[in-house]
Target: N5-carboxyaminoimidazole ribonucleotide mutase
Amino acid sequence: MSTTTKVAIIMGSKSDLSVMQDAADVLAELGVDYEITVVSAHRTPDRMFSYARAAADRGIKVIIAGAGGAAHLPGMVASLTHLPVIGVPVKSSNSIDGWDSILSILQMPNGIPVATVALNAAKNAGILAAQILSTADEYLVKNLMDFKENLKKKVEESAKEMEDGD
Ligand code: C2R
Model:
C-alpha cells in the first residue's frame, strides 16, 4: 500500500472480484488510490480482525466490503473500526436470489451502520467512497464534478438521439 492509499476494497472471496472490480475501476477513473484484497469473516476471522483493527492506523479512510450469501463481512468489519464501511451485496453462486446478501448487509443493528449500495453495485460504492473523501479534498471535488457532468452529457445525447430518431 502506498502512503496515499485511502480506500480499501475487500471481498469475502476471489469469486466476488468480477463484481468488485467495478469499485476499483471507478476509483482509478476518479484518481483515488486503493488497495484490494480478500478477507472473509467466516473463513479467516483472525485476518478480518487484524485487517479491520489496523486499517485506520495505516491511513485508510473508507472501507468498501463486498460479500455474497450470508454476508457477515461488511457488518463485522464495521463493528471493529470507526471508519465508514460501504457494503456491496454480491449475487454469488451460493446466493438464493441476492436477497440473502442484501439483507445481511443492510439490516444492521443501531450503532453499527453499513452504507449499503444496490445488489452488485460496486461502482456506486467506489463513487460514494470518493464522495466521502472529497469532503476533505478539493482535487477530488473537481474530478467528481467532471464525472457527474459526463453522466449528464450522456443522458442529454441519448435524449437527443431518441428525439431525432437516430
Ligand atoms: P466462494 O465462491 O469462495 O465459495 O464464496 C463470498 O463473498 C462469496 O460471495 C461464495 C460467497 O461466499 C461469500 N463469503 C462471505 C463471507 N466470506 C465469504 N459472505 C463473509 O465472511 O461474510
Summary: Helices lie at 17-30, 45-55, 73-80, 99-106, 122-134, 138-164. The chain has a mean pLDDT of 96. The first strand starts at residue 7 and ends at 11.
